Amino acid sequence: DAGVTQSPTHLIKTRGQQVTLRCSPKSGHDTVSWYQQALGQGPQFIFQYYEEEERQRGNFPDRFSGHQFPNYSSELNVNALLLGDSALYLCASSLGVFAAVGNTIYFGEGSWLTVV
Amino acid sequence: DQQVKQNSPSLSVQEGRISILNCDYTNSMFDYFLWYKKYPAEGPTFLISISSIKDKNEDGRFTVFLNKSAKHLSLHIVPSQPGDSAVYFCAASVLPPQGGSEKLVFGKGTKLTVNP
User: Which residues contact A9 (CB under 8 A, 6 or more apart)?
Assistant: First the structure.
């Protein structure tokens, strides 16, 4: 059973460009959350998708957008990239409201984005 | 504002001794706390958790203590092993307003090094 898979693992973009990151959740999971982890910081919640809708959003600008597909996979899009967007982007998949209580939130290995 | 704080960026202990990692939080609405462990080039993995209605939870070598009045929790690892060397994140879960799963609010992490 594959866990959470993310692609690409590393990428380099130029300021002003756009990037799309992809996530396939763990089998059976219906909820995908995205986190940004800057160097020396903890992961910060970007947004969460459930039933193909954005259900929760953290304190990130509209340049950050996403999508969830009928097979529960998800994309994170970032437009007009800034140097400060350089970070590790983590995808977490889960099932149900009490996923944390049930210890069923699983993280992927992340996508390293470098903006130059 | 940092709602979950880990004030020690790093900790070094000898193999076989106790490791104590600390975490403070400011939001009284948090009702569930988790510890995640992260190795380089891997996503965070769940370690242990505690409900706000409890003051202690134990799992093998790992024990988490919660002092709700002080808004403080700590992770004890006894005995520490070199394989425990990793970054440890304290996180609090927030129930979703509608559908989906909890979001996690992370601290900045503490890098634990266990020396042989």
Answer: A109, A110, A111, A112
